[in-house]
Specification:
Mean pLDDT of chain A: 79
Oligomer: heterodimer
Shape of chain B: flat
Low-confidence stretches of chain B: 73-88, 90-100, 102-117
Radius of gyration of chain A: 21 Å
Number of strands of chain B: 9
Structural class of chain B: alpha+beta
Number of helices of chain B: 9
Chain lengths: 218, 257
């Protein structure tokens, strides 16, 4: 029965754009996943450039989980991450025509999300980046960091203040250089370095504290 | 080096990190995208308002009575009195030519739609003041020549004949006529009078009611309508509960401005 009904359902979903604009319809994510998996990155980009709702929905369905992961790293909390994701997707659909097909589409969307996060906190917090020239070497125990699970690292990173967290994300996870980060955030490379060392210091303290509490309980 | 180790260290573990934002995000995004495409409600309102303003101003302008009396009169030179050119929506505005009030209505009613022919007679007063009057004999000759010409060449239009004979006629003969647009307006006037049968004497009420009811005894409803001349409509409505008869008259009136 399932094999009999599935193609019909996909056929019904695919050509009808009305389905996506219908407000009362309960979102049927499984069907959307089937639709989203039909298209390649280039097809999605082209469809969204034409402004077709089917492709827009498919694009969202394809990337929203991954991009929410990105937003979570930069955001203070879950709600902020959702706001950033929404803002970022609206930007994606708005500026889709400027995507020329060079490089991966996913990378382009990811960059938009990162920029949106930076903009979000630059706009909302008064002292986003404090310009402190302080080049102090802090040693972060990378073995210790590597031993932690992804969720634990995320929890630690999200506890950092906005400025440190942003630079730590950009440097340690996205892999940008200090010069690139400085250009992105309109700060000097030295500030970027000092902020990173402070972030590392805080992380190191927290990891040590975690280990202490774990060993202490034993 | 420490710095090299940490740069992009966590890239591998976070590259495919996924999380579910919840199902309520897409409707918000979609609403935002589609609101960009659709014009806002106030745009429609603005368009509707401007159209309405345009319409009403046009209506008002057309409804304004045009009064040309204060403006410069339209002067025409008629070289041949025998030829009449139809002039739509023009009437002569001289005290001599004004119709008596009895016939005025009927004439002006017909003027509204159909073009009116100009009066054949020249205005004597003005022309005699300004220019010497041509002798009656000369006029008669000209008329005779015109008639003969018309009889001989029926194919020729009067206008071409005019051009042929125009130089022969003396300039003094040209009458000066002024024309204005008709200063009348058609309006519908409705009046209503109610007769309360309770106010009347019993005999009067009975006679009135029987006379009036006679007219619509065949009609199934409490409204009787009769049509008079000139598009006048009389509607009688009886209120059986309060014993009242309401008469509404609706007639067309040509108003002199």
């Amino acid at each position: 029965m399932r094999n009999f009904f599935l193609p019909d359902a996909t056929l019904f979903v695919y050509p009808s754009s009305n389905l996506y604009t219908c407000k009362n319809r309960k979102p049927d994510t499984d069907l959307y996943m089937i639709v989203a998996s039909k298209y390649t990155e280039a097809e999605l980009a082209e469809g969204c450039k034409r402004g077709e709702p089917v492709y827009q929905r498919a694009l969202y369905q394809h990337y929203h989980r991954l991009m929410f992961g990105v937003c979570l790293r930069y955001a203070d909390n879950h709600e902020d991450a959702k706001d950033i994701l929404q803002e970022g997707f609206i930007k994606v659909f708005k500026y889709i025509s400027s995507f020329e097909g060079k490089g991966s589409f996913e990378g382009w969307i990811r960059r938009i999300m990162v920029h949106t996060s930076i903009e979000h906190y630059r706009r909302n917090s008064r002292y986003f980046m404090v310009d402190i020239e302080e080049a102090r070497q802090v040693h972060l125990d990378t073995d210790m960091l590597g031993a932690l699970s992804r969720e634990e690292i995320l929890g630690l990173v999200r506890q950092l203040p906005v400025g440190y967290r942003t630079i730590f994300n950009l440097y340690a996870i996205e892999g940008f250089s200090h010069q690139e980060i400085a250009e992105m955030l309109n700060i000097s490379a030295g500030t970027s370095k000092s902020q990173l060392s402070r972030a590392k210091k805080l992380l190191q303290d927290r990891i040590e504290y975690m280990n202490m509490s774990v060993t202490g309980s034993e | 080096m420490e710095e090299k180790d940490i740069k992009g260290l966590l890239k591998q573990s976070f590259e495919h990190f996924e999380a579910d934002p919840g199902a309520d995000l897409w409707p918000a995004i979609e609403a935002e995208i589609h609101s960009r495409r659709k014009p806002a409600w106030w745009m429609y309102a603005a368009v509707a308002a401007s159209v309405a303003i345009l319409f009403f101003s046009l209506f008002w302008l057309l409804d304004q009575p045009s009064d040309n009396r204060n403006q410069a009169p339209l002067v025409t030179n008629d070289s041949t009195p025998g030829v009449s050119i139809p002039q739509p929506f023009m009437t002569e505005d001289s005290p001599e030519k004004q119709l008596p009030p009895d016939s005025e209505k009927g004439v002006q009613k017909t003027n509204l739609g159909a073009p009116e022919k100009k009066s054949l007679q020249p205005r004597k007063k003005d022309s005699s003041k300004e220019l010497p009057t041509p002798s009656q004999k000369q006029i008669d000759e000209n008329f005779a020549a015109l008639n003969i010409e018309t009889l001989n060449n029926p194919g020729l239009s009067p206008l071409t004949q005019t051009s042929i004979h125009a130089p022969d006629l003396p300039k003094a003969e040209t009458p000066i006529k002024t024309y204005t647009q008709p200063a009348v307006r058609q309006e519908y006037v409705s009046s209503r009078n109610t007769i309360d049968l309770n106010d009347l004497k019993v005999e009067d009420a009975v006679s009135f009611a029987s006379n009036t009811l006679e007219k619509w005894k065949n009609s199934p409803i409490d409204v009787y309508q009769e049509k008079g001349p000139d598009g006048e409509t009389k509607t009688y409505q009886i209120d059986f509960f309060n014993l009242r008869i309401t008469k509404k008259t609706h007639k067309r009136v040509v108003k002199q401005l």
